[in-house]
Amino acid sequence: MEAKRLSRLCVYENQLYGLGYRYIAGLDEAGRGSLAGPLVASAVILDREKLLIENIDDSKKLCPAARQTVFKTIMNSCLSWSVAEVSPATIDEVHISKANALAFERAIDKLHIKPDIILSDYFKTHTGIESIPLPKGESVSVSIAAASIIAKVTRDRIMVGLDHDFPEYGFGGHKGYGTKHHLLTLQKYGPCEIHRLSFTGVLS
To answer: How many domains does the chain have?
Structure first.
């Protein structure tokens, strides 16, 4: 069953390789719906000979320990990877959709190998490189799944670090999302400098 699942995740990549594409970048983000912290995007170009990464999946379907393991495998086997951040202040200034596009553009620009084509989760990119947006992309493309894991693990680490700077909010646990505990701390302390003031629930 696992072999069949992994094979299904590689369908888009194998079709594109068959059409002559060489460097396929998967692109995804983490933190779009969070009330605090940066939006983090990742771009990953996997090695064609190492697509079948054990246990790779949509980052949201993996427990933290599994994500860490797959994260290390991706980092050690891919051809190129990058991460890019967009700050809470910029998100407030340009709004989340434009911030998402900006994060995607920055992640692609930071790859040390220029991709021939981009597979992105849901949103079409505007980088001048051919791109294919895939709904629920992290569940149907191994490249996007890889990017989702890199973005999620990177952002979680950032939020754990910010937890030390702003311990009253509990960022290390909820990672900035609108949990009951987070909303209660916002009511008690008000927003801090890493909150997204334009998001519903941050300002009472």
So the answer is: 1
Compute the Cα dihedral for 4, 8, 11, 14 and give only its sign: negative
Q: What is the CATH number of the domain that holds 169?
A: 3.30.420.10
Domain coverage including residue 112: 2-189
Structural domain includes residue 176:
yes
In a domain? residue 195: no
pTM greater than the 0.90 cutoff: yes
How confident is the model over 38-60, as a mean pLDDT? 95
75 pLDDT band, cuts 50/70/90, is: very high
The answer to whether the beta carbons of residues 151 and 67 sit under 8 Å apart is no
Which among 107, 132, 136, 108 has a CA at the least distance from the CA of 120?
A: 132
